[in-house]
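During the second half of the funding period, the structural biology subgroup turned its attention to how the target accommodates small molecules. The most pressing case was zinc ion, which had performed well in the primary screen but for which no bound structure existed. We therefore specified the complex as follows and requested a full 3D prediction, including the ligand pose.
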Amino acid sequence: MDMNTIVGTHDILMITLDTLRYDTAVMEEENCPNLCGTGPWEKRHTPGSFTYAAHHAFFGGFLPTPATTDKTEHIRMFHSRNTGMKTHPHTWLFDTPDIVSGFAAEGYRTICIGGVIFFTKKNPLARVLPSYFQHSYWRMTFGVTNPRSTEHQVNHALKLLKDTTREQRLFMFLNVSAIHGPNHYFIPGAKKDSVDSQRAALRYVDGELGRLFDAFRERGNPTFCLAFSDHGTAYGEDGYQGHRLAHETVWNVPYREFIL
Ligand SMILES: [Zn+2]
């Protein structure tokens, strides 16, 4: 993908499927027609083991890297200008501290729809990531405790899309909270989060994202969509629980890019 033919001409939709494990995502490929309708997940390594670290890297232009030993295979999508490093002609260079303000400098309206705790804007730390954006939103109903969080997030996104003229280029970022714990309530009767309940959460999320993708298609601009996880999580493997630690269940993440 030549990002210099994307930035400026396409709307850009970036979705982080917070805490989604790579193995979970692969097991549900056939049940995710919206996320995987045009291809399978790619296995990548995340630059951060938890939300705060990973998103700073993403907004700095460091997306998850292909899980291969040959680094030359990876063409960076975004790169800071004037670092002195050689960059690929398909890499889009930005002159700002981060890609979000970089897109704004190209005329994009930048919108953040938050999900997990680091996007709640409830205290100064939880305002840092949303503050990258011109417009940021978080509601109780978008958060991890609401079993219909993605439905609410997508409804909010649809409203914002309606209010944006087609001529206005849009960078929309959505942090999906549903797959993050607690997710046991996606399996009736389950008391603990597990790979199975994360799978159920992912199926729910995919079902809701269909409406968002349709709305971008109906808007009429081509949309470049990036969908990936910020980190996985451990459910007891090798004794580990959760994330913010280094384990393959955490550092392997699913990644996809496609045009809507
Ligand atoms: Zn996260």
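Two results from this model are relevant to the next phase. The chain has one domain: 3-65+87-259. The longest strand covers residues 252-259.
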